[in-house]
Design goal:
Length: 75
């Protein structure tokens, strides 16, 4: 059983889920006012942004169509 996601999409969803849950739980427990919690959350969002930009720059455009069959893209 694998606990760590292997695809980039799964990794991004896992990061977003963890950040969202941590913000929600911090709000429920009234610890969102502490400066260290805000710092950790801003660091997590910044790290996720850096990973997203890195993945977007590194990602290649893939065309999902057959090469042999001509298709009309005028629609």
């Amino acid at each position: 059983m694998k606990f760590l996601p292997t695809s980039p999409d799964s990794q991004a969803l896992t990061c977003v889920t963890l950040i969202t849950l941590s913000i929600f739980i911090a709000g429920l427990l009234d610890v969102l006012d502490y400066i260290i919690v805000k710092g950790i959350l801003f660091l997590a969002v910044g790290t996720l942004f850096v990973f997203a930009v890195h993945y977007a720059v590194r990602n290649d455009i893939k065309e999902n169509r057959l090469k042999d069959i001509p298709q009309d893209d005028s629609h």
